[in-house]
Amino acid sequence: MKEDKKVRNALLNYMQWPVFLSVLVIFANIAVRLVSRQAGMVMLGFTVLYLIGAWFALWLGKKRAMGEMVAFASSYNESQKQLLSSMELPYGVADMDGRFLWTNRAMAAILKDEKSARKNLTILFKEITPEALAEMEHSLEVHASYGESRYKISLKKVEIRPEDVKTGTEAKQLLAVYFYDETELYSYMKAITDQKLVAGLIYLDNYDEALESVEEVRRSLLVALIDRKINKYVAALSGIVKKLEKDKYFFVIKQKYMPRLEEERFNLLEDVKTVNIGNEMAVTLSIGIGMNGETYIQNYEFARTAIDMALGRGGDQAVVKNGEKIQYYGGKSQQLEKTTRVKARVKAHALRELLETKDRLLIMGHKIGDIDSFGSAIGVYRIAAALNKKASIVINDVTSSVRPMKERFDDSSDYPDDLFLTGKEAAELVDANTALVVVDVNRPSYTEEPELLKLVKTIIVIDHHRQSSEIIQNATLSYVEPYASSACELVAEILQYVADSIRIKSLEADAMYAGIVIDTNNFTNQAGVRTFEAAAFLRRNGADVTRVRKLFRDKMEDYKARAEAVRQAEVYKGAFAISVCPSEGVESPTVVGAQAANELLDIIGIKASIVMTPYNDKIYLSARSIDEINVQVMMEKLGGGGHRTIAGAQLADTTVDEAKEKVKAIIDAMQEKGEI
């Protein structure tokens, strides 16, 4: 608008110069008349003639100049239109809703197959939404595909104003649309990406156990068949594979094969299980892949992180670490229990060495702690006491399931007053000689007091849940065994090796025994040989079954809530029980919800149960299964995690109906992908 005014004023000044000169001549005539009357009269005649000539020149010249200007503007406008129409860069004008008003020939050639009614940016390109157009300030750039080509689409706001600015008519906003063809550039970038190196590691999960299950003369054949499967699989991807150890392999492939592997969901996981020459135990393996690192070394480190995560999650699965993004495939099989306790003994000795260098020990479980979290914390306290170390257990909120057991410790004179501390109280005690033991949880955000993880330098993790992408990064010692039934089982084994002749008090044995009983649902779920051995060890140290049973009898309100959850359960697709547990009048509704999920598994035909409990403005999900369904993978898709047969998640800002629909959608998606 300012530029229009400048041009208009310049033309107006140029056209009106005779008027300015006429005024000057009149003043000159007056000056001459004051000097001489006769000269003034002569000058007056010339002045009149000049004014008549200037008027004719102004009138005729203006008309001719305007005609020439209109002709020039028309010619310039036509030239500009021709230039825009013939410009090779696809260009168009659209309204603020995205509808094309005009396109040049290059743009029309791209959109030639589209009907005029469909020539709308929001219809042609899903990347351009009405919301994005409404929110854009001056410009917007998106990358989109159209047909077989890819374009960078640049949108810029322009204002079109009427010819007559005096009318006060508001300017109209339009969109200038530019298409920049990136097809060739994208193909080059894709070619470079496809040629990138992908590092991978393959570990056999149960190599020793599988060999022991076959007669000795056939063991070499079993190994040869497994080698052949792996070599053939990698060779089909034009990759190379190298055997590092008897049960470990390293391979490299090009990145262009990754979509194929992901689409096939790493069928080597299932293929290797078909190797059978009389071995009673099927061989399973884990795959860790690292890609899109800055260097080859970083890709290898990604692969190592991925394989550690695959093993920490129970094996028989593939984990792909793509930069910061982590994806999981497989994980259908139950991890086999290790028959040897060598690892437990090694971890026990390492734990002892760490604790001997520290003066104070803090022990922390997960939020809304259960009896497994409490019992394992008590077991670690006994280890610290045996090493003459000051120890305290961090508990912020005591649930109804834990309260009866905790009250027994509060009433006992054998334990110090500061046995139980809140998170804030524990934080005040932290110094350089403090160690932190995290039990029954390996996700930082789920711990009782996440801030302690930042304050304490020496952190030990003891857990039986499968690891997720969110792990405690700076752990000095980590003992995560998904095959274990409970954290109490792991701590009970450590107790037997950490020091000679540790005597556990009956009160402590009760707490740990209760943790195993609750997590195994009375030894019916995830209970292996070592589970019963740990329970036997605790029984020898004074654990009383009857006493534990009395402590964990239900209140009438809890029993009714659990019964209501079972009564209103919906059976989805004939195998999934989905229900809602009422929380009104129930002290610990999440615990009751978990109990209801366990009970639903006793119904014939139910493969998995999911119970939702609204509590503290969140929806708590408890998922359980017997053997066929991996509920941990299911809950991970909702931001949770857990164990293969016991898992959970928390949903904020969600209603019960929305949570139920999310669960059903995940079940549908997992069935389509063959994960169920």
From TrEMBL:
Domain of life: Bacteria
Listed EC numbers: 3.1.4.-
GO cellular component, one term: plasma membrane
Principal subcellular localization: membrane
Protein name: Cyclic-di-AMP phosphodiesterase
Cofactor descriptive note: For phosphodiesterase activity, probably binds 2 Mn(2+) per subunit.
Transmembrane segments: 12-32, 38-60
Binding annotation for Mn(2+) 1: 366, 370, 440
GO molecular function: hydrolase activity; metal ion binding; nucleic acid binding
